[in-house]
Write the structure tokens for this entry.
Amino acid sequence: MKRLEKLFVRETLTIYLRHFLKYRFAAAALLVVILSATGVAMTLPLVVQRMIDDFARANPTDPQAFSFAIKHVALLLSVWVGAWTLWRIMGFITSTIQPRIRTELERTALEAIQRQSYRFFADEFTGSLVRRARSFATAYYDIAESVMGRFLPLIVEVTFLFIVFIRLHPYFLPILVTWFLLIGIKSFIFVRRKVVLDLERAAKDSKVTGVLSDVITNHLNVKLFTAHAFERERFFRVTEERQQIAIRTWRYGEWILVWQNVISAVFMLTVLGILAWLWSQNLVGLGIFAAAILYFNRLNRSMDDVGNAMRRVYEALAEAAEMTEIILQRPDVLDKRGSKELRVRKAEIVFRDVSFSYHDGRAVLDSFNLSVSPKEKIALVGPSGAGKSTVVKLLLRFHDLKNGSIGIDGQSVKDVTQDSLHQAIALVPQEPLLFHRSLRENIIYGRHQATDEEIVEAAKKAHCHEFISSLPNGYDTLVGERGVKLSGGERQRVAIARAILKNAPILVLDEATSSLDSESEALIQDALRELMKNKTVIVIAHRLSTIMQMDRIIVMEKGKVVDTGTHEELLKKVGIYQKLWNIQAGGFQTI
């Protein structure tokens, strides 16, 4: 097994144990009850042995024979009832702690995902992450059930077996030791390979979930491009890969059970043969045969159950290990030790000698310098790939810088907490991000303590109160996943209302009016002018008509500032801005 795979399995068990031991008193009681219940149940074959031996010696015509038989039956019944009662007690204790642990594990998974950086979410499928988080908690159930319901009872059963048979005759000691050595060696060899296969199967399963989620999320594209057959073929390929590894994994588990049963069968026949010889020497009674058969029957059933449980445990560990990897993963962007809260007084922004590139090594920003005065409204324009969106991502600290610095009121964004940084900036993205919740819940996300009156006021300023009021359920209307029940313009206006409610000192508009028709855009421009008052504003725009009133326009190309000025000043210069304006004004010039 690879070292990293071992690490994930070990760490997964450590996380589960840590959560389990939060309820150490209940866990201790559970352990005592399980061992006691199994111990009581294991006395049943001894009671049967004594009953058969006593019955073999008894005289059925004796007047006390019936009461003699009733006493033995009562003893047998009391042992059975005692074991049953203890198992039910175990069930009630388990019902007290297991749901709590599962809930805590789901919360642990969510917290681990939430603390990851922007790049992590850009590289992962949403559906795959959901599956990993759910599987992490579900896997605990399978492992806990196997340990408490199968493995711990087996320890007691094997201990009883050793005690009973070694007391019968010393011949049984080497036989029992040999049997368990064979079982142990077999388990060690098979388990190493089985876990690797299960980890591979879990990875394929996550890939299938990711592809399925991707197709469903982009169902409109699939329809518009008539790509149903293409997507089916792509999905068939990944499911075929998972199917092949699943077959290999399952068959490997079956071979484990075959070897286990063969070893157990040889052991049982050997022990029964020795018992037959001891009986022939008048060293044991008939009852021991019944007890031995009962023990072997129980032990074989337990071994089969343990074999199946081990398969479930391997699979569960493989499923959980994917989430454990995320829990152990260090985010790309972390708050520095001792980071302070960002204090925004003037909202001055300074980029100084900022250079940045993504994983491919291509420089997106090259010695980029920009100063935004307090309450200044600037626009970033330029051809695609100029680095406009990267400037905003770095300001929000979605990525860390390799060179240069970014400061707000003299405080480096690397030296303040990410939460305080994000609280100081309101972002209205090109594609509005809405939850599958009500309109009220989406707007109030800007400030959770806002009153209904404040929500309505923000909606009015964003010109979305009118269409919301016309809906049957008004502000309680569900918008659908990602807001699909709303038009593009309606989604954008809701996002603007949310930003208005947040009322952050720094405002970033990333093509905030791109999804609006001309009529809606005219309404929103008024709302944006109101929103931008007394704020430092950065606007990313491709539609130059939306930025004519900016205090300053920054023209970017290849990660650098190549020109700056007002709309009128830049139009007088022969350069990128003039060419962009001529194209959008109706010309067909090329840059």
Observations:
- The beta strands are 349-357, 363-372, 377-381, 403-408, 411-412, 425-428, 506-510, 536-540, 552-557, 560-565.
- The chain has two domains: 3-328, 339-424+542-586.
- Residues 228-280 form the longest helix (53 residues).
